[in-house]
Amino acid sequence: MPFRLTANISFLFPDLPFLDRFAAAAAAGFDAVECHWPYEHPVEMLRVKLTEAGLDLTGINTPRGNVDAGDFGLAAVPGREEEFRESFAKAVAYAEALECPMIHVMAGIVAADRHEEACYTYIENLRHAAKIAEDKGLTILIEPINHRDAPDYFLSSLEEADAIVATVSSPALKILADLYHLQIMGGDLVSRLAEVGDAIGHVQVAAVPSRAEPDDGEVNIGFVLKALEAAGYDGLVGAEYRPRAGTVEGLGWIAAAGLSLPGRG
Length: 265
Ligand SMILES: O=C(O)C(=O)[C@@H](O)CO
Ligand SMILES: [Mg+2]
Prior knowledge:
Elements (H helix, E strand, L loop, with lengths): L3 E5 L12 H7 L4 E3 L8 H11 L2 E6 L19 H17 L4 E3 L10 H22 L2 E4 L15 H11 L4 E6 H6 L4 H8 L3 E6 L15 H10 L5 E4 L12 H5 L9
Parallel strand pairs: 1-2, 1-8, 2-3, 3-4, 4-5, 5-6, 6-7, 7-8
Helix pairs in contact: 1-2, 3-4
This protein binds ligand LASSHYVV and magnesium ion.
């Protein structure tokens, strides 16, 4: 399969300090990494780590907001528009400095009875972000996240993500299809992914329900990836799972799914 893998170093190599995970990912055979929130580290330090390891950084998330207060993104949170814009600007600054092409714009936690109101906020904030992304040649992603792990996360449905992408109607806005979340929120992956087609800008994988290596659990990841390939997806696949034991020892799922790493024969 043509997919390039990117190691999610917020989850992989959990036994190592974050800054040591770049070298570990390269030694394991990856040539690309993604991560969630790199903001506690100066961009200069991150750039050194990427260069030393010979890695591309493919994706980061927008800052969550006030984590102690339970924020998990701000894009769909009514009344927090100014903070959203500041947090998005910070993500753009990191992405540009690190030549990172994709930013996952996190929607945030919104009570179900405010969903409709939040939808307007989300669309307006995404329009603002998409315009900046278009100008800078970046892609912004929205990711449906399951309600078992993140109750009340605003965006949990693939179909709603597709409708929002169509409404905002920007070439810079795409869906992050994390197969782990999508399986928990309704399954039927092959048919539903085919329906959203070229709205998909990034894919992530993990086992369901364990969120460990993707060769475990109820989804045949290789089969779903082949269907995505047949449907025309040719982007990245993010290895975003929590290793059962050692990260390197668990990489056998890659060959089993019909994928390969550039640095491993
Ligand atoms: O949880 C996920 O799945 C992600 O991809 C993160 O970006 C958000 O936690
Ligand atoms: Mg994900």
